[in-house]
Amino acid sequence: MTLPSADSSRPQQLVVLGTGGTIAGNAASATDATGYRAAERGIEELIAALPALEGLRIETEQVAQIDSKNMSIAIWQRLARVLAMHLARPEVGGIVVTHGSDTLEETAYLLQRVLAPSKPVVLTAAMRPATSLQADGPQNLLDAIIVAATAGTSGVLAVVAGRIWSGLELRKVHVLQLDAFDAGDAGPIGAVEDGRIRLWRPMPAGAPLGLARIERESSGWPRVEIIASHAGSDGAIVDAVLAKPQPTPLAGLVVAGTGNATLHAELEAALWRAQAAGVRVWRCSRTGAGPVIVHDERIPAVSLTPWQARVALQLELLEGET
């Protein structure tokens, strides 16, 4: 296969890392799109199923084999280390990571913040198992490899259903549709069309925090929980979480607020108590789109999804502990 947008000045050794997910899943029937078992096929099998890749210089490595709902800090750490190792190799032009869709947005956000690579790290996933009549994994994987091998791409990206997303903005927005991802107001970076990419805006950028930020033993990472404000909220859940004993005391809370990150009055009072007890509290909106604009900074607000905000707060708390 010749990549039409590839630049001969760019190293064309590609690395494809597997972590499991629906893209590697099997079901008993080709018509079963929901009752499958994730993470049953290895990355070599997924690559072998794409004859269009013949002739490309591709290495494969199985980093994990999980349903991504079970993603852990330890696997994040392992994946980040493996990525950093391959990114440092001058002959490697880009890396693809197969991943489950459920926590793809959290992994992508973490990797961009920690690595912010000058080479492309392209995550991809599937909404149907490999056995499905509507298997979307093969096309998504092929598209991701095209993006990873194309000159001008960089940073942590996600490629699903022909769209290219920034790892800082990605979010899963549908349970079943093949086109299950979005980026709120930002929209996609570009698209893969007939084997070529068309870009609409710049790649994700920023200074990398570095691997040292996340190298602390996973069991010792600061514990950050997510709660939501809703009709009838009170402070009971906050007080209950605060009361959980050592060895993992609560370090942070992310609150998914209503509308413009607003909070029920009783919940807000409990959050002030949490802050007084030394817990870092951030709030964001549960709506899924739009910037958060607030005038009361007693509880800081961020324009991130609750899941991104949790990762961001963990990274900030880790800064003081490394």
From TrEMBL:
Matching CDD domains: L-asparaginase_II
Pfam families: Asparaginase, Asparaginase_C
Family the UniProt entry places it in: Belongs to the asparaginase 1 family.
Highest taxon listed in the record's lineage: Bacteria
Active-site residues annotated for this sequence: T22, T22 (o-isoaspartyl threonine intermediate)
The protein's name in its UniProt record: L-asparaginase
All residue ranges annotated as the L-asparaginase N-terminal domain in the record: 14-199
GO biological process, any: asparagine metabolic process
Protein source organism: Rivibacter subsaxonicus
Domain (Asparaginase/glutaminase C-terminal): residue spans on this chain: 223-319
Keywords: Hydrolase
GO molecular function annotation: asparaginase activity
